[in-house]
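We now fix the convention by which a protein and its fold are recorded. The integers have meaning only within a learned vocabulary of local backbone shapes. A record is reproduced here so that you can trace the correspondence yourselves:
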Amino acid sequence: MGCVVDAENVSTYAGDCAKDCTEEEVIEEVVLKLTSHPLHAVFPTSLYALQKVVALPKIEKTVFVVCPNDTCNCLYNLEEAQRITYCNAVHFGKKCGCELGCFRSLAFAQKKWSYHKAFHFIPPSVWLKAMLSDESFRTLLATSQNREVASDEKQDVYDGEIWKEFLENPLDTSVPFLSNQNNIGLMLNVDWFKPFKRSEYKVAALMMTVLNLPRAERFKERWTLVLGIIPGPTEPKGNINTFLKPLVDDLLLLWDGLPLHPEGKTVKAALIALSADMPALRKVSQFVSHKADYGCSRCKFKAEREPSMGGSSGNMSYLTSIVAPNRTKEETTSQSKEYLLAKSKTEALSIQKKDGVRYSELIRLPYFDIVRMSITDPMHTFLLGMAHNEIKLCLSSLPKDKKLQFQDRFKHVKVPYDVGRIPTGIKDEDDLPGMMHNSGKTFYVFMPGLALQGCFL
């Protein structure tokens, strides 16, 4: 790092500049300062190296040691983990006992204790304090607060019932919680992905979105709260409650209010939506799988197994004229607590099978309605769910000559270059499951209306 020759001057310059400039201006000035240095060829190649040279603002984070047992995943702070060495969590009367870390040999006969797995967590309160210090963020909040929308239209989350009916004090229905400019509504997003090619290693991102922002700005990287990455190499089995616990602890503080505003005003925030695909949603909300008998998270409908030669098959039937009663927040909370207090795994599984719900850390939030506020994200609901089933039904009902007509049209359809790759080889309904997310979206949005036109006449 040759730049450290002038590190003190650059650091002081950046610190003075940050007081009166925007983030973009600070970065621009720092880059100019560094590149003008005679040793600019050793320009920092990582954020860590840049922070060694420039006094960039740092986001406070907490590092938890994670139990490597994927059925436990208990969290410990660094000091406690080094002291106990082995996980002491007890599940249904059985101690985990998995090793949390070990001493590794260094140079000159030195040894250092290091953990096997870690969870880096940035509380939403830290993110909100940093964002509220940005004038452009405060301006966007004020802009969305003063929007004009027709009363009979539903264009965004602002027009939904939860946004309008969500109250800070249930006894005072005159003032909705989100009508106050200093109150913020948050949405939690969870999704698992594979960060490496040709590898089955999977991690999950815990992210939050500020719903008060205008829709055009809401999901931009700049305003996304990256809370943490749930480590791999596989998905936690059953639930991610241990990773949600520090998040819920911080959300409880935000519900009471914290002085996060640069002018000293008290800011309150509440989690009003949980959005994910179906598997991730069930891991967080702790409703059982959609393939279970009570697979619906909104009502208590019991699906029937389709008959087979050897008894009942694994296929589920949801076709019925029976209107099942809806789940309620109070009932689900009671069932979750009952599952938590189960003294044996057998008893817990019995409660799970009877009620279709397990314990989730989110029920600790007094205001959070885990039934109404848990939603499947639109991409998986429409593009990979309803649209998939509708097109499959259409293709399966076509006669052979119409399928040939569909295939011929499919080969000659051209879409704009920026739409993405067109899936190839779609001949009938059996080829639909093999499509990836992006190509599936392209197919469902552009192709059916063109290729199927006139096929049903």
